[in-house]
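To assess whether the prediction recovers the assembly geometry, we first specified each molecular entity separately, as shown.
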Amino acid sequence: MSFVAGIGRFCIFLAAFFRATIRRPPHPGMVLAEAYRIGVKSLPVLVIIAAFVGTNLALQGYNAFAPLGGQRLVGMFVSTAGIREMAPVIAAAMIAAKAGTEMASHIAVMRIREQIDALEVMAVDPMWYLILPRLLGIVLVLPALTIIAIFTTLCSAYLVTVWQLGLNGAVFLEFARQGIQGVDFIYCMTKGLVFGIIIALVSCFFGFEAGRGPEGVGRATNGAVVTVSVAVVFLNYFLSELFYG
Amino acid sequence: MTATLELLGRIGLFGARVVWATVTLQVPLQTFLDQLRTVILRCMLPVIAVVFPFGMVMSLQGLEIFALYGSQRLLSPFVAAAIIRELSPVMASTLVAAQGGASFAAELGAMRIKEELDATDVMGVDSLAFHAAPRVLALTVACPVLNLMGCISGIVGGYFTAVIMEGEAHGVFMSEMWGLTGPADVWGTVIKTTVFGAIIGLISCYLGFNTRGGAAGVGRAVNDTVVYSILVFIAANYLLTSAFFGGAMP
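The predicted structure of the complete assembly is given in tokenized form:
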């Protein structure tokens, strides 16, 4: 029941957001500052996670194909699975965990300290001032971060394949190339774009709705990251069905 | 770098105190059971809601590739192996970190800010053994249980796409399913997620237990919990996968 109520409140929040921002262009400096903060601060975490995803894709691909005598397919497996599914989802999940929780807790703290009310009193629209730059910033950087995640995944998978599993690197690269089509990059950047919109709007929504006191901040941050992860994985299925189904 | 090392050392000390409190039976059993139930109930829906669509996606992509070679019967062992060995442990633990770990960090952080933990200490009860240790243990036990739920829902998701939506044969899917996976894989997934659960529990409870700086500090603790615990367990995942399913080390 509270879930349905939450969806209703989210729709009202969206309507208010569009009404507040549709006529007012964003402040470019703030958008760039947010893009810098989200992109550069999340980059180290994202690169580490993407590297370990690549290592495990290579190990599991080897493990699945070696009994059938198809070790050479590891490259194709890594590139297909990595580019189509893992990299966009992992990038979105990590940005949700790093930047999304930061948005939620920042806005929640402003809410419980009544700074958001103070903004309204000063005739600054909090939707325009707090949410729009974050939304545009994440939309700018997430497709690029997805591409970086793909690159890191492939690099670490290559290293594991050559050094740990002892397969031929050139064969890996050739089969990896066969698993990639140019249009895949457009698809996965589109996925990144959609996920970015979801992350920014849902995290800011949870921050805006934060309850009283320190528990309110904790609960808002927690709710934001869980809701975003579930929404991203569900949307990923529908986008995959649309692109590849 | 030194700050990271110091943090790791402090988490290690915290873990040692949790283990000591557990061996000397200072951890109240009832609190542990309550927290266990809470964390399983809280995480169950998110875990199922994430691993289920992942199974569907695996099935969708797998069908496309296997259809090229006309070998659709390889689909179900492929889906089962991928879900049990890798996807469900990682996705379920991510959700346990995001939901269970983060909520424990928020609870303990709020208790620290409101000085409830200090009040417990003043009453002569060790707040670490009474509040933090049961939560660490609850996450350690809950993570494998939730992972098994994730495995089942992922395979059901794969079945849903392959059989109900794409019209593959039900009998083929069911009979071929265990072609690649054996008991060793199930043990592997259970051991992996127990380790991940312990990592998530230690990091989340340490950060919540040592929250500073008011309401903003609670937000920061929750944020750091999610990021750090995912980072550490993904790194551990690589080592554990190498150990269990290794392949030839040079």
